[in-house]
Amino acid sequence: MIEKNNAKKMEESLSQAKNVLQIEAEAVFSLKEKVNGLFKEAMELIINSPGRVVFTGLGKSGLIAQKLAATFSSTGTPAFFVHATEALHGDLGMITEGDVVAAISNSGETDELINLIPSIRRIGARLIAITGDQESTLAEYADLIIEAGVPAEACPYNLAPTASTTAVLALGDALAIALSHFHGFTPEDFAVFHPGGSLGRKLLTKVADVIKIREQNPTVGENAAVREALFEMTSSRMGSTSIIDKNGNLKGIITDGDIRRLLEKSSDFIDKPVSEYMTADPVTIEKDKLAAEALKIMEDREINDLPVVENSKPVAMLNFQDLLRARVF
Protein backbone atom coordinates (compact mmCIF):
# COMPACT_ATOMS: atom_id res chain seq x y z
CA MET A 1 0.00 0.00 0.00
CA ILE A 2 1.11 3.54 -0.79
CA GLU A 3 1.17 5.93 2.16
CA LYS A 4 -1.28 8.80 1.99
CA ASN A 5 1.44 11.40 1.54
CA ASN A 6 2.63 9.49 -1.55
CA ALA A 7 -0.81 8.98 -3.06
CA LYS A 8 -0.66 12.25 -4.97
CA LYS A 9 2.79 11.37 -6.29
CA MET A 10 1.46 8.01 -7.47
CA GLU A 11 -1.40 9.65 -9.37
CA GLU A 12 1.01 12.08 -11.00
CA SER A 13 3.29 9.19 -12.00
CA LEU A 14 0.41 7.30 -13.56
CA SER A 15 -0.54 10.43 -15.47
CA GLN A 16 3.05 10.64 -16.68
CA ALA A 17 2.89 7.02 -17.89
CA LYS A 18 -0.24 7.80 -19.93
CA ASN A 19 1.50 10.84 -21.36
CA VAL A 20 4.44 8.70 -22.47
CA LEU A 21 2.12 6.37 -24.35
CA GLN A 22 0.38 9.32 -25.99
CA ILE A 23 3.66 10.90 -27.11
CA GLU A 24 5.07 7.64 -28.46
CA ALA A 25 1.82 6.74 -30.23
CA GLU A 26 1.79 10.13 -31.96
CA ALA A 27 5.45 9.73 -32.90
CA VAL A 28 4.78 6.36 -34.54
CA PHE A 29 1.63 7.57 -36.30
CA SER A 30 3.49 10.53 -37.82
CA LEU A 31 5.94 8.11 -39.45
CA LYS A 32 3.40 7.28 -42.16
CA GLU A 33 4.62 10.43 -43.90
CA LYS A 34 8.17 8.99 -43.93
CA VAL A 35 7.11 6.10 -46.14
CA ASN A 36 7.93 8.06 -49.26
CA GLY A 37 10.42 8.07 -52.12
CA LEU A 38 13.45 7.60 -49.87
CA PHE A 39 11.79 4.66 -48.12
CA LYS A 40 11.15 3.10 -51.53
CA GLU A 41 14.76 3.71 -52.56
CA ALA A 42 15.95 1.99 -49.39
CA MET A 43 13.79 -1.01 -50.28
CA GLU A 44 15.21 -1.09 -53.80
CA LEU A 45 18.77 -0.84 -52.49
CA ILE A 46 18.24 -3.83 -50.19
CA ILE A 47 16.35 -5.84 -52.82
CA ASN A 48 19.08 -5.33 -55.41
CA SER A 49 21.91 -6.03 -52.98
CA PRO A 50 23.58 -9.46 -53.34
CA GLY A 51 24.53 -9.44 -49.67
CA ARG A 52 22.83 -8.97 -46.33
CA VAL A 53 21.58 -6.06 -44.26
CA VAL A 54 24.04 -5.24 -41.48
CA PHE A 55 22.53 -3.25 -38.62
CA THR A 56 24.80 -1.28 -36.34
CA GLY A 57 24.40 1.22 -33.53
CA LEU A 58 25.44 2.06 -30.01
CA GLY A 59 23.60 2.23 -26.70
CA LYS A 60 19.80 2.23 -26.99
CA SER A 61 20.10 2.54 -30.77
CA GLY A 62 22.28 -0.56 -30.72
CA LEU A 63 19.57 -2.49 -28.90
CA ILE A 64 17.02 -1.40 -31.48
CA ALA A 65 19.46 -2.44 -34.23
CA GLN A 66 19.73 -5.92 -32.72
CA LYS A 67 15.97 -6.31 -32.66
CA LEU A 68 15.59 -5.13 -36.25
CA ALA A 69 18.29 -7.51 -37.46
CA ALA A 70 16.33 -10.35 -35.86
CA THR A 71 13.06 -9.16 -37.41
CA PHE A 72 14.56 -8.82 -40.89
CA SER A 73 16.09 -12.29 -40.69
CA SER A 74 12.91 -13.98 -39.49
CA THR A 75 10.79 -12.35 -42.20
CA GLY A 76 12.95 -13.31 -45.16
CA THR A 77 15.63 -10.61 -45.44
CA PRO A 78 19.02 -11.97 -44.29
CA ALA A 79 20.46 -9.61 -41.69
CA PHE A 80 22.72 -9.48 -38.66
CA PHE A 81 23.90 -7.01 -36.03
CA VAL A 82 27.41 -5.64 -35.56
CA HIS A 83 28.16 -3.60 -32.46
CA ALA A 84 29.65 -0.26 -33.51
CA THR A 85 32.51 -0.43 -31.02
CA GLU A 86 33.35 -4.05 -31.82
CA ALA A 87 33.28 -3.19 -35.52
CA LEU A 88 36.12 -0.72 -34.91
CA HIS A 89 38.16 -3.54 -33.40
CA GLY A 90 37.89 -6.23 -36.03
CA ASP A 91 34.21 -7.05 -36.56
CA LEU A 92 34.21 -4.97 -39.73
CA GLY A 93 35.56 -8.15 -41.28
CA MET A 94 31.99 -9.50 -41.11
CA ILE A 95 30.88 -6.92 -43.67
CA THR A 96 31.32 -7.60 -47.39
CA GLU A 97 31.11 -5.54 -50.56
CA GLY A 98 27.61 -6.73 -51.36
CA ASP A 99 26.12 -5.80 -47.99
CA VAL A 100 23.94 -2.85 -47.01
CA VAL A 101 24.87 -1.28 -43.67
CA ALA A 102 21.96 0.30 -41.78
CA ALA A 103 23.47 2.62 -39.17
CA ILE A 104 21.12 3.87 -36.45
CA SER A 105 21.80 7.11 -34.58
CA ASN A 106 19.20 9.65 -33.55
CA SER A 107 21.71 12.50 -33.53
CA GLY A 108 23.69 11.20 -36.48
CA GLU A 109 26.85 12.22 -34.67
CA THR A 110 27.76 9.06 -32.75
CA ASP A 111 31.56 8.97 -32.93
CA GLU A 112 31.82 5.20 -33.29
CA LEU A 113 29.46 5.18 -36.27
CA ILE A 114 31.18 8.12 -37.92
CA ASN A 115 34.52 6.35 -37.55
CA LEU A 116 33.13 3.34 -39.39
CA ILE A 117 32.31 5.27 -42.55
CA PRO A 118 35.80 5.26 -44.16
CA SER A 119 36.12 1.49 -43.74
CA ILE A 120 32.59 0.86 -45.01
CA ARG A 121 33.50 2.88 -48.10
CA ARG A 122 36.73 0.93 -48.64
CA ILE A 123 34.89 -2.37 -48.26
CA GLY A 124 32.37 -1.21 -50.84
CA ALA A 125 29.20 -1.78 -48.83
CA ARG A 126 26.31 0.67 -49.19
CA LEU A 127 25.25 2.80 -46.22
CA ILE A 128 21.75 3.71 -45.06
CA ALA A 129 21.51 6.24 -42.24
CA ILE A 130 18.49 5.86 -39.96
CA THR A 131 18.60 9.13 -38.05
CA GLY A 132 16.57 11.96 -36.63
CA ASP A 133 18.82 14.61 -38.19
CA GLN A 134 19.09 14.83 -41.97
CA GLU A 135 21.87 17.42 -41.65
CA SER A 136 24.09 15.23 -39.48
CA THR A 137 27.51 13.84 -40.39
CA LEU A 138 26.12 10.32 -40.69
CA ALA A 139 23.41 11.52 -43.07
CA GLU A 140 25.94 13.50 -45.12
CA TYR A 141 28.05 10.44 -45.95
CA ALA A 142 25.21 7.92 -46.33
CA ASP A 143 23.95 6.63 -49.66
CA LEU A 144 20.39 6.96 -48.40
CA ILE A 145 18.69 8.52 -45.41
CA ILE A 146 15.63 7.20 -43.60
CA GLU A 147 14.58 10.14 -41.47
CA ALA A 148 13.07 9.07 -38.15
CA GLY A 149 13.01 12.30 -36.18
CA VAL A 150 10.45 12.99 -33.46
CA PRO A 151 9.35 16.37 -32.03
CA ALA A 152 10.41 15.38 -28.52
CA GLU A 153 11.27 12.43 -26.34
CA ALA A 154 8.64 11.04 -24.01
CA CYS A 155 11.08 11.68 -21.18
CA PRO A 156 9.89 14.87 -19.39
CA TYR A 157 13.43 16.25 -19.56
CA ASN A 158 13.74 15.34 -23.25
CA LEU A 159 16.86 13.33 -22.44
CA ALA A 160 16.25 9.58 -22.26
CA PRO A 161 15.80 7.93 -25.69
CA THR A 162 12.12 6.95 -25.65
CA ALA A 163 9.96 8.26 -28.48
CA SER A 164 12.98 8.32 -30.80
CA THR A 165 13.83 4.65 -30.28
CA THR A 166 10.18 3.65 -30.57
CA ALA A 167 9.99 5.55 -33.86
CA VAL A 168 13.06 3.82 -35.28
CA LEU A 169 11.78 0.44 -34.16
CA ALA A 170 8.41 0.99 -35.85
CA LEU A 171 9.96 2.35 -39.04
CA GLY A 172 12.39 -0.57 -39.17
CA ASP A 173 9.53 -3.03 -38.69
CA ALA A 174 7.66 -1.31 -41.53
CA LEU A 175 10.68 -1.73 -43.78
CA ALA A 176 11.09 -5.39 -42.82
CA ILE A 177 7.45 -6.24 -43.51
CA ALA A 178 7.41 -4.26 -46.76
CA LEU A 179 10.41 -6.26 -47.97
CA SER A 180 8.82 -9.48 -46.77
CA HIS A 181 5.68 -8.72 -48.74
CA PHE A 182 7.68 -7.84 -51.85
CA HIS A 183 9.48 -11.20 -51.72
CA GLY A 184 6.21 -13.09 -51.25
CA PHE A 185 7.22 -14.40 -47.82
CA THR A 186 4.65 -16.93 -46.56
CA PRO A 187 3.67 -18.32 -43.15
CA GLU A 188 5.33 -21.57 -44.23
CA ASP A 189 8.58 -19.67 -44.90
CA PHE A 190 8.28 -18.11 -41.45
CA ALA A 191 7.88 -21.55 -39.91
CA VAL A 192 11.06 -22.78 -41.59
CA PHE A 193 12.96 -20.10 -39.67
CA HIS A 194 11.13 -20.96 -36.41
CA PRO A 195 11.12 -24.78 -36.36
CA GLY A 196 11.64 -25.04 -32.61
CA GLY A 197 8.58 -23.08 -31.53
CA SER A 198 4.88 -23.79 -31.41
CA LEU A 199 4.38 -21.71 -34.55
CA GLY A 200 6.79 -23.94 -36.43
CA ARG A 201 4.92 -27.04 -35.32
CA LYS A 202 1.61 -25.54 -36.40
CA LEU A 203 2.87 -24.58 -39.83
CA LEU A 204 5.14 -27.52 -40.57
CA THR A 205 3.32 -30.50 -39.05
CA LYS A 206 0.87 -32.15 -41.42
CA VAL A 207 -1.82 -34.71 -40.81
CA ALA A 208 0.40 -37.32 -42.46
CA ASP A 209 2.99 -36.74 -39.71
CA VAL A 210 0.51 -37.17 -36.86
CA ILE A 211 -1.22 -40.35 -38.07
CA LYS A 212 2.16 -42.12 -37.88
CA ILE A 213 1.80 -42.06 -34.08
CA ARG A 214 -0.81 -44.84 -34.15
CA GLU A 215 -1.01 -45.93 -37.78
CA GLN A 216 -4.57 -47.11 -37.31
CA ASN A 217 -7.40 -47.18 -39.84
CA PRO A 218 -10.39 -48.95 -38.28
CA THR A 219 -13.04 -49.73 -40.89
CA VAL A 220 -16.06 -52.01 -41.31
CA GLY A 221 -18.46 -52.52 -44.18
CA GLU A 222 -21.80 -50.72 -44.16
CA ASN A 223 -23.63 -54.04 -43.79
CA ALA A 224 -21.53 -55.12 -40.81
CA ALA A 225 -23.19 -55.40 -37.41
CA VAL A 226 -22.66 -52.73 -34.78
CA ARG A 227 -20.96 -55.45 -32.73
CA GLU A 228 -18.24 -55.76 -35.40
CA ALA A 229 -17.69 -52.02 -35.36
CA LEU A 230 -17.27 -52.16 -31.60
CA PHE A 231 -14.75 -55.02 -31.92
CA GLU A 232 -12.86 -53.01 -34.56
CA MET A 233 -12.61 -50.03 -32.20
CA THR A 234 -11.37 -52.26 -29.41
CA SER A 235 -8.69 -53.97 -31.50
CA SER A 236 -7.45 -50.69 -32.97
CA ARG A 237 -7.71 -48.90 -29.63
CA MET A 238 -9.51 -46.05 -31.34
CA GLY A 239 -12.74 -44.38 -30.26
CA SER A 240 -14.45 -44.74 -33.61
CA THR A 241 -14.48 -46.65 -36.87
CA SER A 242 -15.09 -45.63 -40.45
CA ILE A 243 -17.96 -47.23 -42.35
CA ILE A 244 -17.20 -48.07 -46.00
CA ASP A 245 -19.12 -49.33 -49.00
CA LYS A 246 -18.13 -52.28 -51.20
CA ASN A 247 -15.71 -50.03 -53.14
CA GLY A 248 -13.95 -48.86 -49.99
CA ASN A 249 -15.43 -45.37 -50.11
CA LEU A 250 -16.26 -43.67 -46.83
CA LYS A 251 -19.99 -43.69 -46.08
CA GLY A 252 -20.06 -42.75 -42.41
CA ILE A 253 -18.57 -43.06 -38.95
CA ILE A 254 -19.68 -44.51 -35.63
CA THR A 255 -18.08 -43.75 -32.29
CA ASP A 256 -17.94 -45.44 -28.93
CA GLY A 257 -19.97 -42.50 -27.63
CA ASP A 258 -22.70 -43.29 -30.14
CA ILE A 259 -22.82 -46.89 -28.92
CA ARG A 260 -22.90 -45.90 -25.24
CA ARG A 261 -25.83 -43.60 -25.88
CA LEU A 262 -27.67 -46.40 -27.72
CA LEU A 263 -27.01 -48.80 -24.82
CA GLU A 264 -28.74 -46.42 -22.44
CA LYS A 265 -31.95 -47.18 -24.30
CA SER A 266 -31.56 -50.82 -25.37
CA SER A 267 -29.07 -53.44 -26.52
CA ASP A 268 -31.24 -54.71 -29.35
CA PHE A 269 -29.23 -52.76 -31.92
CA ILE A 270 -25.93 -54.58 -31.34
CA ASP A 271 -26.43 -57.09 -34.17
CA LYS A 272 -28.12 -54.74 -36.59
CA PRO A 273 -26.34 -53.12 -39.58
CA VAL A 274 -24.05 -50.33 -38.51
CA SER A 275 -25.31 -48.22 -41.41
CA GLU A 276 -28.55 -47.68 -39.48
CA TYR A 277 -26.73 -45.92 -36.64
CA MET A 278 -23.72 -44.29 -38.26
CA THR A 279 -23.24 -40.59 -38.88
CA ALA A 280 -23.40 -40.35 -42.66
CA ASP A 281 -21.03 -38.19 -44.69
CA PRO A 282 -18.81 -37.25 -41.74
CA VAL A 283 -16.33 -34.41 -41.83
CA THR A 284 -12.92 -35.60 -43.06
CA ILE A 285 -9.45 -34.31 -43.78
CA GLU A 286 -6.69 -35.21 -46.22
CA LYS A 287 -3.15 -36.28 -45.36
CA ASP A 288 -1.43 -33.26 -46.86
CA LYS A 289 -3.44 -30.76 -44.82
CA LEU A 290 -1.88 -29.01 -41.85
CA ALA A 291 -2.38 -30.73 -38.52
CA ALA A 292 -3.43 -27.36 -37.10
CA GLU A 293 -6.38 -27.38 -39.50
CA ALA A 294 -7.43 -30.79 -38.21
CA LEU A 295 -7.16 -29.54 -34.64
CA LYS A 296 -9.48 -26.62 -35.40
CA ILE A 297 -12.06 -28.90 -37.03
CA MET A 298 -12.05 -31.23 -34.03
CA GLU A 299 -12.27 -28.39 -31.52
CA ASP A 300 -15.07 -26.62 -33.42
CA ARG A 301 -17.13 -29.80 -33.80
CA GLU A 302 -16.17 -31.23 -30.39
CA ILE A 303 -15.08 -34.58 -31.81
CA ASN A 304 -12.20 -36.86 -30.82
CA ASP A 305 -11.63 -38.73 -34.07
CA LEU A 306 -11.39 -37.53 -37.65
CA PRO A 307 -11.22 -39.82 -40.70
CA VAL A 308 -8.28 -39.14 -43.01
CA VAL A 309 -9.23 -39.75 -46.63
CA GLU A 310 -7.58 -40.07 -49.99
CA ASN A 311 -9.77 -40.22 -53.12
CA SER A 312 -12.85 -40.63 -50.90
CA LYS A 313 -11.34 -43.68 -49.19
CA PRO A 314 -10.35 -43.68 -45.48
CA VAL A 315 -6.62 -44.25 -45.04
CA ALA A 316 -6.28 -43.48 -41.32
CA MET A 317 -8.12 -42.26 -38.25
CA LEU A 318 -6.76 -39.12 -36.61
CA ASN A 319 -7.16 -38.92 -32.85
CA PHE A 320 -7.38 -35.69 -30.87
CA GLN A 321 -4.92 -36.94 -28.26
CA ASP A 322 -2.35 -37.63 -30.95
CA LEU A 323 -2.54 -33.99 -32.05
CA LEU A 324 -1.84 -32.98 -28.47
CA ARG A 325 1.04 -35.46 -28.26
CA ALA A 326 2.45 -33.90 -31.43
CA ARG A 327 2.10 -30.53 -29.64
CA VAL A 328 0.00 -29.03 -32.41
CA PHE A 329 -1.65 -26.32 -30.29
Please name the CATH topology of the largest domain: Rossmann fold
Give the strand order of the largest sheet, numbering strands 1, 2, ... along the chain: 2-1-3-4-5
Counting helices, strands and paired strands, the structural category is alpha/beta
> Average pLDDT value?
90
What share of residues is helical?
Answer: 40-55%
Strand content: 15-25%
CA distance, first residue to last residue? 40 Å
Sequence stretches where pLDDT stays below 50 over 5 or more residues: none
How many domains? The number is 2
CATH-defined superfamily of the largest domain:
Glucose-6-phosphate isomerase like protein, domain 1
Backbone shape: elongated
Describe the structure concisely for a colleague:
This protein is of the alpha/beta class.
Topology:
Blueprint lengths: L3 H27 L6 H12 L4 E5 L1 H16 L4 E5 H4 L12 E6 L5 H13 L2 E6 L5 H5 L2 E4 L15 H20 L4 H6 L5 H7 L2 H4 L8 E3 L4 H11 L3 E5 L5 E6 H8 L15 E2 L4 E2 L4 H11 L3 E6 L2 E7 H6 L4
Parallel strand pairs: 1-2, 1-3, 3-4, 4-5, 6-7, 10-11
Antiparallel strand pairs: 7-8, 8-9, 11-12
What does this molecule look like?
- With 329 residues, the chain is of the alpha/beta class.
- It has 2 domains: 4-185, 3-Layer(aba) Sandwich (Rossmann fold), CATH 3.40.50; 207-325, CBS-domain (Roll).
- Helix content is 46%, strand content 17%.
- A 5-stranded parallel beta sheet has the order 2-1-3-4-5, with helices on both faces.
- α1 packs parallel to α7 (163-182) and α3 (59-74) runs parallel beside α7.
- The longest helix has 27 residues, at 4-30.
- The mean pLDDT is 90.
